[in-house]
Amino acid sequence: MIKVLIVDDEPKLREGLRTFIDWEAEGYQVVDTAVNGKDALDKYKIHDPDLVLADIRMPGMDGLQLIQRLRMQDPLLHILILSGYADFNYAKTAMTQRADGYLLKPVDEDELLDYLRNIKRVIEEEKASEQWKRVTSDWNREALIQSIVMDEGLGEEQSAQLYERAGQVGIQGKAFQIMLLSLQAGEEAEARTDAAARKALIHLFEQSERGWVFSIHAKLGVLLKEPLLSVETEGIYRSISQALSGCGAYFSIALGDKVTNLAEARHSYRTAYELIRQQFVLDHGEVLMPGMLQASAAARQGEARTAEELGDQLYFAVDIGNRTAVKTLLPELGQLYMDEALSEIDIKDRFAELLTTIMHKVLDQSSGQPGRQKEFTGAFAEMQKARTILDLYDKAESLLEQLMSQLGEDSKHREVKIMLDLIHRNYNESLKLETLSSIFNYNSAYLGKLFKNTTGEYFNTYIDKVRIEKAKTYLEEGLKVYQVAEKVGYTNVDYFHSKFRKYVGTSPSAYRKQSNHA
């Protein structure tokens, strides 16, 4: 609606003009009336009208003086003059003050409507033109920022012109910093999410004159003219999260290095971009800050167990239902993959391969469980959708939790009973006391002593005896010696020979022959 202020010292005329025509039907709203020039100035400050309809003759400040005062405040204000026949020449003088027209009293309805419709068209054109100027200005500014942060291949003179133009459109400051926002949303929600994120950034930074929003390489950015303080980042992350809460989108925010002039903004952009590029391993639900890459690299230094050792421990932890160990081992495994500088896809694939192997081993060796792998298809699909490595740990833990629940293992079993069950079901695996001790959170020497006191056998001796008993069965079935050795967990056939002779008193080949003749 176009706002109208009616100014006349005659009460009947004021109210008559207010009700004379259907203002709203013409796109207008009478926001107030004023009794004289001074009252009109006060009401103008309150309502900021688009059109003032004023009598030319009023006590105190007349219409001409009012127009002059209003023009000082708004050169584009639209004004219609009301005058009697005696003031006709006076009214024509008012036209030099760029009034839109004058109406003789008594006001003719059709004449007033003609003026109002013409003024409405002009105002709409003015607003469209002003909006276009703002949009064009925003586009020009955004294009300038994009050129600044991507300042590649420009000569010294071209760069100087670029920074000069930036100053002309108001891009100035004593220090700068680039903030990047990366969005992940479904195709249907992509445009809505991008619009919501841009609106939030404009509210947070442009409206407070702290920076300028731009888009670049499918990301949103902000050129901050004052680097953010660390204490501010939590609030900014929370505000953007709230703005995007209904969009079903994930996002990551990264801050580049602080720089002291606009020419170095490209460096700030590159550091922010590198953080975003590593968002899968760095994003822990907070703004990614400069220095995180170095901190992450430093955290990876030091001795770590091999992937094979961690895989064995994770398998045994699942097999005995040790949920605490599973929760601890998954991040250690992820850190190992990060140490190898694997990509997001490779890390997910490694996790999927290992967990698939664990699932097959556990289900195949558990009574009543084989053939249930299809029940875990959805869990593996969810792992591939993980947005960050922490999300991957959660999804992997959920899958293993589902597996452990189906097995019905009870972590309250006595340790030795669990170990015996493990040995009898996994005699062909690389079972080591050191591996199991970390699963049970015991010292390996203590666990070995506990096993010996309970079973009367040393841990390794017991495993050997179980393997040899299984080997005798396979030999009786007619399998070849090297096949039997592999089936019971001995990778070295000669070593298998020595162990078999030790516990049986004859060689595997001789035992096989005796069995076949019997």
Helix-strand layout with pairing:
Blueprint (H helix, E strand, L loop, with lengths): L1 E6 L3 H10 L7 E7 L2 H11 L3 E5 L7 H11 L4 E6 L4 H8 L5 E4 L4 H41 L6 H13 L8 E8 L2 H20 L4 E6 L2 E6 L5 H14 L6 E6 L9 H13 L1 H4 L9 H8 L7 H14 L2 H17 L4 H21 L12 H8 L4 H19 L7 H11 L7 H8 L3 H12 L3 H18 L4 H7 L5 H12 L3 H10 L1
Parallel strand pairs: 1-2, 1-3, 3-4, 4-5
Antiparallel strand pairs: 6-8, 6-9, 7-8
Helix pairs in contact: 2-3, 5-6, 7-8, 12-13, 12-14, 12-18, 13-16, 14-16, 15-16, 20-22
What features would you describe in this structure?
Helices cover 60% and strands 10% of the residues. The chain is built from 23 helices and nine strands. With 518 residues, it is an alpha/beta fold. Strands 2-1-3-4-5 form a five-stranded parallel sheet, with helices on both faces. The chain is rod-shaped and about 140 Å long. Strand 7 and strand 8 (219-224) form a beta hairpin. It has four domains: 2-107, Rossmann fold (3-Layer(aba) Sandwich); 145-298, Alpha-Beta Plaits; 307-407; 443-517, Orthogonal Bundle (Arc Repressor Mutant, subunit A).
Rg, alpha carbons: 41 Å
Distance between the termini: 107 Å
Q: Which oligomerization state do the chains in this entry correspond to?
A: single chain
Q: Tell me the CATH superfamily of the largest domain.
A: Reverse transcriptase/Diguanylate cyclase domain
Structural class based on helices, strands and sheet pairing: alpha/beta
CATH topology name of the largest domain, in short, is Alpha-Beta Plaits
If helices are DSSP runs of H or I spanning 4 or more residues, what is the number of helices? 23
Unreliably modeled segments: 409-413
CATH class of the largest domain: Alpha Beta
Q: What proportion of the residues is helical, as a percent range?
A: 55-70%
**What is the residue-mean pLDDT, rounded to a whole number?**
83
Based on Cα principal axes, name the global outline.
rod-shaped
**What's the architecture of the largest domain in CATH terms?**
2-Layer Sandwich
- Major sheet: arrangement of strands: 2-1-3-4-5
The total of beta strands comes to 9
Describe the largest sheet.
5 strands, parallel
- How many domain modules? 4
Beta-strand proportion: 5-15%
